[in-house]
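Consider the following assembly input.
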Amino acid sequence: MRQTVERETFREKGQSVREGMAAVEAEGLVKTYRSRGGTVEAVRGVDLRVDAGEVFGFLGPNGAGKSTTVKMLTTLLSITHGTARVAGLDVARRPDDVRRSIGVALQEAGLDPRQTGRELLELQGRLFDLTAGQASMRAESLLDLVELTEAADRPIKGYSGGMKRRLDLASALVHEPAVLFLDEPTTGLDPASRITVWDEVRRINERGTTVFLTTQYLEEADQLCDRLAIIDDGRIVREGTPLQLKLELRERLGLDRDATLDDVFLDATGRTRTRVEGEVQEVSA
Amino acid sequence: MTHALVLGRRALREGIRTPEAIVPTLFIPLFFLVVNVGQVARIFPGSSTAFLHGQGYGAFQLPSSMLLAASFGSAALFLVEEIEGGYFDKLRATPVRRSAIVLGRLIAEGVKALVIASLLVLLGLAFGITIASGVLGFVLLILLTAGWAVVYAGFMQVIALKTRSAAATNSAGLIFFPLLFLTPNFVPRDLLTRPMEIAATFNPVTYVMEALRSLILVDLAWETVGLGFLVIVVSAAIMLAISIRVIRNYD
């Protein structure tokens, strides 16, 4: 009953998305920056469609344009060219309505280290126009959802990386968004914490929230995503279900084994295993 | 306004939980007050110096220390920390007015300045300074100081939003020293050399300082006090307009 009342409160203010409707749509999305070295084209014409209820994976190597695209879709960056609609709302024209309809957890868990977990969630609720009482109730249920009730009254600066990620995820859910954007939600987490986040994402999606997820972990995309797109050098280079993409690659290359998502990724981005290993070695050095 | 108040309360909590950022705000201005009075008080004895209106030199110097304290706000540095840590983007992704994000921290800075200015004046009273304008003057003194704290914190927030760098924000904060010293800091304006007098006349801090000083030394000189408040209101309006423009165009 409490949840029904809360859900109605949020839905009155935000935009809901129905099954079959596009939760995210982008056409010719371009982002250019001016820097000292000249103009940088971070995103060069991205077309996307994510249906309501999907978990959509957005993959790409470092610097491919994943985070820039997410920031444009979540109103955090201006769009240089093209159009984007989220939850049926034009991102450039109705940014506040878009913000009411989306939840955002960015690459770095954006938390205020001096607040407690409970204070952070209550504040987030107040910023989405909940009353103090509603915000407090919502914080309680979210803390329970992400299993942080015991740590709720401790300052966030003392939380582990996994706890911070879970709290960030909870804060993105305060207003029961129609679309949840997760930018590399498991980067830097240990395997156990990563699996906990995956479980949360599945649970959130089962409750009707569309999830737009960027990740560098192909296993994560394979496990979680209904469909995915691979971006490289600011352009979408593959799009489809994980199975479709793997079958297409096997057929095209005439492989005598099942293709993996790693194979699809390497093929799509023109990278080779040797180069990737080389890059990894360079990083670890 | 609710969002600004909610964010203001959060910024206040942040201040209370970081006492190491607040304590110097009180002690450094007190240090300057003691040093300046110690160096100059014998040159300007209260009994024979007309501009002291019968008080000691400490009463003349107190406004400088109050303005110094009001310019030590930490809002901009907390903001840079928030930008670097990603929480600022989290706030920008909520449907709150951009002005509320700016105003939240300014409200907190204003409240902190009210407390610190009160403490400074009360310390002054304990050491024999009297407020010629009485209880109303005390209230106006505190409000003027808090007003200046809000203006200066707003200016620093603009620098933080534009540069997104703690080092650049810190450096920009040092601009207060020329602003403070190009005022009738040690003697009234009519006793300054001509170039200093011209510089002080163009410096808005001069009018705030003179308003504070008149409340301590002269009683309620409404014209001087009004000018001080006018400077604060105009500066606050300009600063707020710039802040909102910067945060709206923040990319």
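The beta strands of chain A are 22-35, 38-51, 55-59, 81-86, 89-90, 102-105, 179-183, 210-215, 227-232, 235-240. Ask yourself how this observation constrains the way the partners meet.
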